[in-house]
Amino acid sequence: MPATDLTLALAAVPGLPAKVARTLAKEGISTMADVVWHLPSRHEDRRRMEALAFQAALTPSCHHVIVTKSANKFFGRGKGTFEAVVQQAGGLLGQQLTLRWWNMPWLSKSLAEGMELIVYGVIKDFKGCLSIVHPEYEIIKGEDDESATIHTGRITPIYRLRGGMTQKALRVAAWHVLQHLPPDFIDDLLPKPSEQGEFAGMTRAKALREVHFASSNEVLAVARRYLALEEFYGYQLRVAQRRRRMLDAGGRAQKGTGELLRDFFAELPFQLTEAQKRCLDEIHRDMASTAPMNRLLHGDVGSGKTVVAFAAMLRAIESGAQAVLMAPTQILAEQHARTAAKWLEPLGLSVTLLTSQSRQSGPSSQSDIVIGTHALLFNDELLSNAGLIVIDEQHKFGVAQRAKLIRKSATPDVLVMTATPIPRTLTLTVYGDLDVSTIDQRPRDGVKIITKVRARTKQAEAAKFLRDQIEEGRQGYIVYPLIEESEKVDAGAAVKGHAEWSKLLAPLEVGLLHGKLSPEEKEHVMKRFRDGKLDALVSTTVIEVGIDVPNATVMFIHDAGRFGLAQLHQLRGRIGRGAHTSYCVLFIDDKDEENKMRLAIMEETSDGFQIAEEDLKRRGPGDVLGHAQSGEAPLLFGELLADTRLVRLARQLADKTLEDDPTLSRPALAAFRDAIATPEKAQAMMQ
To answer: How far apart are the first and last CA of the chain?
Structure first.
């Protein structure tokens, strides 16, 4: 990488106004590299703004306009709107469009008659008046403005802003930086593409130029895919390096005698599904190898991962080792401990629960099975003989936490589990260093969960329905996104909701569960709910995993639009665990058409894999999995992870690179190799 070019301070870039350099430097964008890698979030095709008339439509449109008049309009208790009436610049004279912003009177200081704007939004026709509510806008003419040719008449980049940034300043900076840099200003990380393929002629430098200032929409699409491929390729190189180090470390062969497993299966009150048997065979095959197992077990809610994990733990115990299970919450750890005591203690095995609040009955290092929370990370005597470490709901733990637990023993076999079905593309990227076992069959297919999206004004009807269910002997959950009301966040809160539902359902017993309660208080509430002493439970998402109350058949989720689809599916998985038809109601704002459309898939299917794929498309992997899960900063082109072909190509290229050049000696790869040891540098190279 020609560092002498990209490390140059913006203040030294020829032609770049000093005011622009100072503005961006205040927000941490101070070098050419900072500008080059501050990629646009989207583009507007401003070549197509020659339309002679405004037209109402269902999709956003972009217009070059002139403000003809503007004013604040107030009505009732200080509320009002700021309105700017505009007409097309060079378009049909006399036709007007009203731009309207609610409760933003200060805009009168920014927008005035005679100004030229670029506006972007959905034009609606209200009783013959064409208008856009809360449009995006940009002032393009002013005393100190740059040439409008940078901002209009082209496929124009739109950047994410923070602090005092403006679109104009970023665009001007990007224009001058890219004009100053030589044609091939940055080394290619990817191998040279085929001359006949999709990426023929594309380089890293060309792709970056096109993403900032595209020559056409077609070339822009190829450039974005090329940079996405490069990003996924770099990710796969890191993954492959980790996997090779793990395999080189060596482990123990755990073949077992089969006695405990035979007794375990003989006592189970059910038969394993074919999917469970297949996954268990894959796990046992790994454990029998001298290479340490590093496997992901995932499946839909209710698919039976726990019994598979316990069977794997028995194989470790048969081999003379200890088995450990770490769960993210005390509620889930205690539930696993109860299940283990029920299933495994009759086999003559000792089970120890270790949490920050629990008291051990004996040294955990002497137990066959240790189940705990984060407290396991701070027990120095633990895991000296751990043959298998199971990490449940592993996306709740950070990468460093998982690594710390695993390092406590000499190359143990590791099984990580999640009840969130993972799209295929994520198993190739975020989980690329793991072998994957998928339980794609559920034992309880006959239990039906009916899901409906409803306006939150229907709460009285919902209360009647819940009361009817309770009178039939059932129980229900009522979930809120917040614990207490917040001035900053417009969303329902469990504490207030508990008071409201206690009145609506009186004299029935309504409990309250949230994260601020002590572990003892949480367990007391859950025990009362499990024992049927509470008819309904108002809760936050603390019930998302590990709660198993077969008698609960109703779930109301308030402000459901604030949750991702995968999380809603997890919450919904708390019902439908018994023999009775269950009901999930997702409450949203009456006029929230966007979330009504987004949540429709929850009404259509209970297939967690389908829902996870949709969640990935809509929100990207950073939101679906979180930073702590992947151990990386959010992917710049995360939405393209939905393109399985692109991800697989990145995997193939990374594998071939390591086969041909294990030391990564090519200049760009060598720099990347050296940066792998410091993840922040590696990430900086990609963005």
So the answer is: 13
Kindly state the tokens that stand for 648.
């697989």
The reported pLDDT for the residue numbered 151 is 80
Q: What is the DSSP letter of 499?
A: H
d(CA 356, CA 403): 20
Q: What is the pLDDT of residue 560?
A: 93
Q: What's 482's DSSP letter?
A: B
Mean pLDDT of 623-649: 65
The 294-299 sheet, strands edge to edge: 351-354, 369-372, 322-326, 386-391, 413-418, 294-299, 435-439
Residue 39: phi and psi, rounded to 5, are -80, 150
Task: Give the Cα separation of 96 and 130 in Å (integer).
Answer: 7
What mean pLDDT comes out for the span 548-553? 92
Cα dist. 333→135, 193, 354, 356 in Å?
49, 50, 9, 11
Beta strands 80-88 and 124-126 are: unpaired
| 395 vs 505: CA distance, rounded Å | 36
* Separation between Cα atoms, residue 335 and residue 547, nearest integer Å: 8
Pairing state between β 322-326 and 386-391: parallel
The DSSP-derived string for 341-384 is HHHTGGGT--EEEE-SS---SS-GGG-SEEEESGGGGG-TTTTT
389 in Cβ contact with 405 (< 8 Å): yes
Strand pairing of 129-133 and 97-102? parallel
> What is the reported pTM?
0.69
Quick check: 196 and 617 in contact, CB under 8 A? Answer: no
| Helices 305-318 and 330-343, packing angle to 10 deg | 60
- The CB-side HSE value for 106 (13 A sphere, CA atoms) comes to 0
Q: Is the peptide bond before 17 cis (omega within 30 degrees of 0)?
A: no
Q: How far apart are CA 131 and CA 395, in angstroms?
A: 45
Q: How far apart are CA 617 and CA 405, in angstroms?
A: 33
The predicted pLDDT at position 629 comes to 44
Using CA atoms, how far residue 64 sits from 67, 90, 147, 175, 449, in Å, is 10, 9, 15, 21, 51
**Between these two residues, 408 and 535, which has the higher pLDDT value?**
535
Nearest CA among 204, 562, 545, 283 for reference residue 392: 545
Which token pair is 465? 């329905």
The pLDDT value given to residue 626: 44
What is the spatial distance between Cα 248 and Cα 553, in angstroms, rounded to a whole number? 50
